[in-house]
Design goal:
Blueprint: H1 3-19, H2 31-39, H3 49-64, H4 68-75
């Protein structure tokens, strides 16, 4: 396949792709849905009890073994 044939093929593909984009308007208005989301208020993330337990264990371990703090910071 030569470059000219390839160019013609690409041109034909682009013409069909561009002409098929006649219906580019939104099918519905998104603003009422956005207002409902804003009225719900901020989404506060709920932290499970297991995460609090892990944070407590980590805090206790760092209190009991302060030499582990540089090692922990190195891993971050």
């Amino acid at each position: 396949m030569t470059n000219k044939e390839n160019d013609k093929e690409i041109e034909a593909f682009l013409k069909t792709a561009i002409t098929s984009m006649k219906d580019y308007e939104l099918r519905r208005d998104l603003w009422p849905q956005m207002l409902r989301k804003l009225d719900e208020g901020p989404a506060v993330p709920r932290v499970p009890w297991f995460d609090w337990a892990l944070a407590g264990i980590l805090g206790a371990a760092l209190f009991l073994f302060p030499g582990a703090i540089p090692a922990l910071l190195y891993q971050l």
